[in-house]
Fold this sequence. Notes:
Layout: H1 2-18, H2 25-40, H3 53-72, H4 77-80, H5 84-91, H6 97-103, H7 107-123, H8 132-152
Helix pairs in contact: 1-2, 2-3, 3-7, 5-6
Amino acid sequence: LVVYGAMWTCYLSLMQVGQVFLSYQWDSLLLEAGFITIFAAPLLSLRREGSSSAMMFLVKWLSFRLMLGSGIVKLNPSWTDLTAMNFHYYTQCLPAPLAWYMHHLPNWAHKLEVVQVFFVEIFLIGLIWWPRPFRLGGSMLQIVLQGLIMATGNYTF
């Protein structure tokens, strides 16, 4: 508990000092996830105990907000007219070799990709609140989307 709290405080300090250099979405996400971890850690025991329903709710809420926010931020003209993927692959930070092939797909395939991204990020994320079989199905589609993102671009710069 104390160690996680100290790590969170250090990263919060770094974000304050780093200002614009540490103001990306993933920096805030790391702080939020770290804050949840402080309270999920066992207080006095090193034994792994089941997560409380409150902790599971917080983790689901964080995941839900992240993915829904990622989808909502795309509701701009380049995405809503279904043309974002026409130029995405060659304008991303560090395109992977597969990005070249994806970029050369036909226009209808790029439009389908945009529709699928919207569907997974805005609609399917709601399955996180449904019973287990629905959550598993939604999670698998989220994993496929994230896997494709990792396969076409390198975001570890």
